[in-house]
Amino acid sequence: MNRNLITVLRELGLVVLFVITFAIIWILVPAFGSSRNMIGLLNLVSTSGLVAGSMMLCLASRDFDLSVGSNVAFCGMMVVIGTNLTHSILLGIVMALICGSIVGVFNGVLIAKLKINALIATLATMQIIRSFAYISGNGRAIGVSDEGFNVIGLTKFSFLPSPFDQVPLPIWVTLLSFIVFGFILNRTVFGRNVLAIGGNPDASRLAGVNVEWTRIAIFTIQGLMCAIAGVLSASRITSGQPGSSIGLELTVISACVLGGVSLAGGRATISGVIVGVLILGMAQNVMDLLGIQSFYQMFVLGMILLTAVLFDNILAGAYRRR
């Protein structure tokens, strides 16, 4: 097997696998192909999709963030509290965006400036921010006084042709985020620096890349995306839930790894991340339609991830031998 073929398989193999699997499921599970279920599937993955783009940058730079689930819940609480206190939805959203970004900056400083291992730093932050989420609501969910806030997550654009006029705002925001992160990764100096840092931080530093500030910027972006996801999630469930988004970090990292993002850094594609998010969401959606219990779903999702990583490792080994 020559290197060009191996490269094509690594880049496009998952996409082809997704298309084939999608077609088979479409035929075998009648309810799966309905427009209502398709919109439900996309809504299901909107939160993980929003966070996956920024997580892609973290992983590509040889870092990762375990605090994203806690940050999404915390920002969901902040937007509700901010809206209730100021009687302004806009100010509540701004408050959540600032809080999420601050968490991101804090993570970046811990890792880039203080040289704390990303695993330890974000594991600690995960616990701290989740605690803040519970403390802010005294351990309880908080409803929103302005019912207009609840409309945000349900907003649809009726001027679009059917069935796009039934697609809610979170799906459009997620799609826009994928476009933006694809542009950042492939068309900007910042994106090239991210990949360079992941490939070799020392060489990047010698080449003039400000490694520390780039890492802080990556985590700040991660925090901002968590805030956006938290706002949309809180609007969709009509309240701030301190216990929401538990396990989101594992889902997002799994989607990125499934999509070919290297945990060793230096390799990532937005198309792979999109497919990874969709595959995990599609698997969960199908199992829900078939009535498969949650503990079996955990096994299936784990096996999907393990199989994808093993397949990529086999191709990587074949590539090095050529």
Mean of all residue-level pLDDT scores: 90
Low-confidence stretches: none
Based on Cα principal axes, name the global outline: globular
Largest sheet: 2 strands, antiparallel
CATH domain class name: Mainly Alpha
The number of domains: 1
H and E order: HHHHHEHHHHHEHHH
Organism: Labrys miyagiensis
Subcellular location: Cell membrane
Protein name: L-arabinose ABC transporter permease AraH
Keywords: Cell membrane, Membrane, Transmembrane, Transmembrane helix
Blueprint of the fold:
Layout: H1 3-28, H2 35-60, H3 68-86, H4 89-113, H5 118-136, E1 142-143, H6 148-152, H7 169-187, H8 189-199, H9 201-206, H10 211-237, E2 239-240, H11 248-258, H12 270-289, H13 294-321
Antiparallel strand pairs: 1-2
Helix pairs in contact: 1-12, 1-13, 2-7, 2-8, 2-10, 2-11, 2-12, 3-4, 3-5, 3-10, 4-5, 4-10, 7-8, 8-10, 11-12, 11-13, 12-13
